Amino acid sequence: MKANSVVFRKKIHKLIRRIAFVFPVLVILFLIGCTRTQNISGSMPEASPFTSTQSSIINIIQTYSTITPEPDTTKLPDLSVTGTQTITLSPVPLTFDPTYLIFDTETPTPTLDPDLFLLRIVSPGPMSKVISPVELVLHIAPEYTGITRIELIGEDGAVIYAKVLRTYSNLGYYTRLTQKIDYEIRGAAEIARLQISTFDSNGGLQALSSVRLLLQDVGENQFSQMSEVISDRLLLRFPVDGDLVTGGVLSVQGEFQPMNNLPLVLELTDSDGSVLGSRLIQLSASDGTYQRFITDIPYQVQKKTQARLVIHQSDDRIEGLSYLFSRKLLLAP
Question: How does pLDDT run across 196-234, given as a tens digit for each residue?
């Protein structure tokens, strides 16, 4: 009995909650329906007096509709275009950082190569003290063999010893020459220049290398040590042997290890020995290092001409040459 009473009360409470939820919804629908009575025939709806709630809503709408917005006083830019506007581009000057113009200079690394020395006196070394006979050991590049002259020149320019012989080329190898040099001097000792030179088939001087010696009448040999650098004194980078040169100007680039402070002489000669063009280059004082040089030699030829570039330096103590280098070229107008 008590349980049925409890169940009944729960149903009553649930019914009341449903009525409390549905009732406001019905009231709202009723109010809306009252304000929108439409004529079934499609004619304009009849005017009906507004309720107080509807009047309040209309008053609010009318109030907001009559508000005039305040004007924005911010001035906008004038975007109107008058005429034709021409845009002129100002040239921008090119600039550079001078530090980027510093280039690495080429440092020649002499090596034993047929293109780097023509004649090399292996023994005796420079300023060796010698007694007669002197044993000469010489290397000759393949392209410069042929007529070879060995000379010993005294400090007064007199020829103490001279010999001419023929040497032969070993293709791809240097020709090794050994020779004993007998000499006689009038004093106890004398400075002399030992020089070796080679000549082409026309008798033109191709190469010359030399060392100074102290000739002794009596005593014993005291040979100086040869330099560790076994390359030629001249490292010619340009022109290359056999180059065809055109345009009337020959550009020459290379490095030279001076024997003294006299100028370096560059000459272009034809097969008869006639000089077609020349240049003098004054290098720094001789200090045992290679010095770079770049120069141009103008020339004039009427047709293709076999020629030689001859580079030489004179001896500053004993009359004559101390060094000579040459390279074959073909000159054209």
Answer: 999 998 889 999 999 999 999 998 999 887 655 556 889
pLDDT in tens, 102-137: 444 444 444 434 456 889 899 999 999 999 999 999
The count of other CB atoms within 10 Å of the CB of residue 214 is 15
Query: How many C-beta atoms surround the C-beta of residue 66 within 10 A?
Result: 7
Distance (Å, rounded) from C-alpha 75 to C-alpha 240? 80
Number of H helices, E strands in the chain: 2, 16
pTM: 0.65
- Residue among 242, 271, 235, 265 nearest 108 (CA): 235
Q: How far is CA 220 from CA 20, 134, 136, 211, in A?
A: 143, 11, 16, 19
Q: Is residue 264 a contact partner of residue 321, using CB atoms and an 8 Å limit?
A: no
Give the Cα separation of 119 and 183 in Å (integer). 23
Inter-residue contact 218 to 187 (CB < 8 Å): no
